[in-house]
Amino acid sequence: MQVSSLNEVKIYSLSAGRSLPEWLSDRKKRALQKKDVDIRRRIELIQDFEMPTVSTKIKVSRDGQYIMAVGTYKPRVRCFDTYQLSQKFERCLDSEVVTFEILSDDYSKIVFLQCGRFVEFHSQHGHYYKTRIPKFGRDFSYHYPSCDLYFVGASSEVYRLNLEQGRFGLLDCALSSVTADTEIEGLPSISALKFDGALNMAVGTSTGQVLLYDLRSSNPLIVKDHHYGLPIKSIQFHHQLDLIISADSRIIKMWNKDTGKIFTSMEPEHDINDVCLYPNSGMLMTANEAPKMNIYYIPVLGPAPKWCSFLDNLTEELEENPESTVYDDYKFVTRKDLENLGLAHLIGSSLLRAYMHGFFMDIRLYHKAKMMANPFAYEEYRREKIRQKIEETRAQRVQLKKLPKVNKELALKLIEEEGEEQQFSKKRKQKNLPSLLKDDRFKVMFENPDFQVDEQSEEFRLLNPLVSKISEKRKRKLKILEELEAQGQEEEEEPEGKASDAESSESSDDEKGWVEEVRKQRKLLRQEEKLKRQERFKEDQQTVLKPHFFEIKEGEEFRSFKDSAKKQKLMKKTLEDRLKLEEKLGTLNVSDTTVGSKQATFKLKKSEQQRKQQEAEKRHRQERKTLRRSASHLKSRRGRGQLFH
């Protein structure tokens, strides 16, 4: 049994070890168990808990008695009885199963989603009914309160099949899977589905995201990304710890359903096809791209099932020995260690197993080689013990204060204040407050040069009028500390200082001269500002002004800079203010309609060129009008003359 740990969560692999062939007789199996230690140490909870080639999905009935798994080849379903710890029956199918669900408390009602868009219903005796869905299916889930089957497939939609009414419904999850923290390639489609009670539903996508929904809203409560870009194969809920167990073909992740924080994770040896959590226990089973189906026991998630309760006692015994790991009988050595032991010639042989930047070798062989290569190991042990004793005595001496690289003066000030607070708390018998230097929230302030305090800035000098005198003392003390650290000498309790009476008198003098110091700092700041203005004036005199050209858009005519400034000012206003202004100018007309709504009519602004053209046309029409009037007047006068003549 292998043991691994992540985030202080121990995971026991119960299916580790070699499996025996089915065609071996019981006598030969017993003989192999006597000879082989690995076979003797393995744990076989259920007899022949495997598939001929590959297992694709695995489920547990609601009563906890039956474990059902599907796989190939040929396509088949196997049912295992936990009370008998053996296989109950095997049933072959027409096509490969994508996934399946147990509808009843036992194995009597089963639904299979097959490759050719077929949904096949089985009863206790065998095949019962067969139908098809619109898209190629990838997963489905059964909603017990409403008797609905929710199917997901080669699209971003969820189809609902009611077993009483035969009615379909859909929910689009594609846009919800795209968030600011996720990067996806292509259109996400749904690959996994799981219900939690009557209102919660979890959906897995083909791009590696898990979306948790409340059925009363179309927006997800949380989106969790696996960051592998692989389709989600399985989703499980763990109610005791409020966890969601999601898996793709590479990794199984357990995370909090409210915050998304990782609880632990597992990476099996073979690709994962499905994950099944045994109800009300810490047992986890996986269907893999291998004949053997893996079984894991995680005590943090819950106790062992009733039919294998001995696992609790077994894991408690293992936890009593904290040094028990996967490689108890092996020693990890590097290439340099092998050269020192004189075993470099074993590289490539069966006595060494390559792992990362070194090798694993038998611990007995390592001890023998070390005794032969280094017969004076006791002398080395003695010298190491003496060195440890010397280090312990050094730790009792007065240690030098190691200051950070950034904001050394601020750190020294905090150390002094911390010492004063410790003395005060000892007198008052109070608890010491946490140090600012040891707080991780302010760690960057003493590491990043961007947080260095600028003592020459105006704000610092005005807010700290007595900083010059205090900083001089601290600089002297800082210089002494650096000299002691460089020379390796021990620090005195007060390397440079005065008596307490002198310090109190000096503090009173500082309080009296506070106003004078502020005035002095203000005067210095005025002088510095005056020098800066003179320097800027000299630079302005030396600089030569160059013409700056602006490009006017096509169709517009430049009149003055005031128009552009007015236009920019207008664009900064809100839409409501702009509409009110347009209404005042007469370019916008807002009126009420008969049905109670609002109707807005806009008049488009005309360009300068259009305005000039319209004015020219207007003058031309007016000139023609006056010419027609004069011509008609002359004609009438001529007619009158002929009549009188």
Structure description:
The protein has 14 helices and 29 strands. With 645 residues, it is an alpha+beta fold. Among the domains are: 2-320, Methylamine Dehydrogenase, Chain H; 330-373, no CATH class. The strands form eight sheets. It has a five-stranded antiparallel β-sheet, with no helix packed on it. Helix 7 (408-428) packs across helix 9 (467-487). It is flat and about 140 Å long. Residues 588-600 have a biased composition (Polar residues). Residues 485-495 have a biased composition (Acidic residues). This is Nucleolar protein 10.
Could you list some keywords that capture this structure?
645 residues; flat; alpha+beta; five-stranded antiparallel sheet; 14 helices; single chain; Methylamine Dehydrogenase, Chain H
Side-by-side strand order of the widest sheet: 1-2-24-23-22
Tally the helices.
14
- Strand portion: 15-25%
Q: Which CATH C-level class of one domain is it? A: Mainly Beta
Report a brief summary of the structure.
The protein has 645 residues and is an alpha+beta fold. Helix content is 33%, strand content 25%.
